[in-house]
Amino acid sequence: MQLNIKQRFSVVAIYIGLILGIGYYFSNDWQFLVDTNNNLNAVLIATGLALILSVYITEPYFSKPVDVITRWVAIFLFLIGLNSKQCLSLTPYWFIACAVFTGLGLLLIFLHGFNKFEKQQRIAVDFICKISRPEIVFTLLYFDIVVSFFSYNQKEYPILIGFGFLLAINKPIVWIVNFISTQFKNITSTTDASKFIGQVIGHESTDLYKVELQSDNPFRQKELKGSLVYLENITNGVAGIVLSERILLGKKWLEILSLRDKNQNLISFNIKTLMPLTGEKSIFSKTNAVYLLNIDALEEEVRNAINSNKVKANFKNLIGNVWEGSTINKIKFNKLFSDGLQKERGIGEGSIIQTEIANEEVLYQIIDARTDEESLEFKDTHGFTIGTAQKLGRYIAVSNELNTVKWLPEIYTPIFLLDPLNVAYDSNNFIGKLPNTNYGIPIKTPHELVTHNTAILGILGIGKSCLTFELLKKLLSITDVKIFCIDLTNQYSRELPKYVFPTLIQVDFVPATLTALKAGNATGVPANPATWGNEALYRTTIVTEIDAFIASDKRIITINPDMHNVSKPGSQYNITHKIDLTPAEKVRLISERLIVKASSLGETSEARFLIVFEEAHSLVPEWNSIANEGDKNATNGTAKVILQGRKYGLGSFVVTQRTANISKSILNQCNTIFAMRVFDDTGKQFLENYIGSDYSNLLPTLEERHCIAIGKALKLKQPVILELNDMDEIILQPVVVL
Question: How many domains does the chain have?
Fold first, then answer.
């Protein structure tokens, strides 16, 4: 049972009173206090008083080697000071013990700092310090003196033996002191003792403090998280709320946050009258006592101030506190939310949380978490979780964008799960939203989505094409762009009509043109390359088809190069055969004809022509994925078109599942990125340059219909995990004929 300093001095005073009373009772005078030849002096003063002062004043918790030396030297001096008539039954053993423990203490002090014997030193120090504790040594010496000097005195012997046992067990005196202290506190305190929780044992910040509940406190077994409490300061009480609990052996620690009103003053009240007080700035307390708070008993003004406090009003959405290690761009926070809230709200990667920077609400997005452990007291430890969240900024509902907020929140600032305002969300106006909110992210500059190029990356079947179709649909509604979808799978010709009115779609070149192209694929004479194949015809056909498409009211044309029968001479001299153009070579020809057309119309900042490279790894492959030299030249030619096309209103969508196999010359031109689930390391490493390592590490675990987006067209200055629109909201609804 731990005692405070006042209680320890009270115990010492009681024991001194008993010593004086026993000594006077036996000697009828006070000479025993100073007469060293008096046996009562030896047992009560030299031993009993030394035991009491050591246990309760000088060494209440632990002993050091220097204390061991001092104690055994004192005992040695006491032994040699005894006269010839005074002889202890264990005197030889006491002299041996004095020599052994004094020598060991001196040796350990001499060896301190020698790393070679560090482990042995710790064992030896622990041994001699525990064996030489005053309650052990002086108790044994006391009983040896009583047995040696008083065993034949029938009056003094039993009383001194009984007093010795009282010194040894000491609990009755301690219990009496504790009882009197408790009763005195109950009489003088202005608070309800039945509501007493514990004492403040430390402050972590201006408003955050730690409270300890002892084993005998009835609230130790109850869950107090979220409970209102107050810190007593003589006649005043400062309101607070319990944030977290930590269980130790035989006790409990609480973390409590003081509550402030709208003027940032601590919410305080008079304990006697329960009337509000104003102007409180500090939580300093003279008593350090914390009690449960019954809010219904307070005056209305205090109740309203507490209920309007953000932490109290929104406690169910409390995520944690800003933790050490936070920076301007990212915050660390300790997890305080329950498993129930996590299950209910789906808290995890991508969840939106909010805190304050200089009284301004700022949004963050959870991107990582880790577990850790801290030592509490003795061998008690506490496991906890530290989350990491990226700063997004302040969401402006009027303009539907995230604005930058400078600086970072103060340490221990409360963080809440975003409970967004009831804002309207229309999937036609947004490409997606912040996860589990209605905070939509629109395409802010649709022309730059084209002219500054866009990459849509993700594994097979994750929804890249659906996202592409939605982007195309939105571009058609807000721009005049003409779209050329190069697709080897024919997926666009099958699926696009679900998103875009079929009347706006042209499926490949006109059939008659494709028939004529095939018929013109000739076998020539060995000495004349121009007579072989139909590459020249294909170039003119592309120009004709492009002009016709641009002049028509169609908005999208799907092109499958594999359906175009085009070949070229198999060699430069002595030609004996012809070879088919690869998809990459056909894409180059189409791209080059498009930039010629775009440049003829002059420079512009608006989107004119969009090339969609579906399965781009097959259409513009990386050099190390190329099987022949022709594809390398073709990819370089297409990359040059993409590089130069911006000023003429020409851009591209790069859609691929194999980031490693696509031309980086083209991919690096993409200023807007939609990254869906990706597993391969090459893809993650490439995207790390755009979105950083924290977000790239999330790519393998992204949920369905989620992506990491960043880029010029979205006006996102940092990567953001978006919840994409539901496909059912995007596809055209069937027309009901009445």
Answer: 4
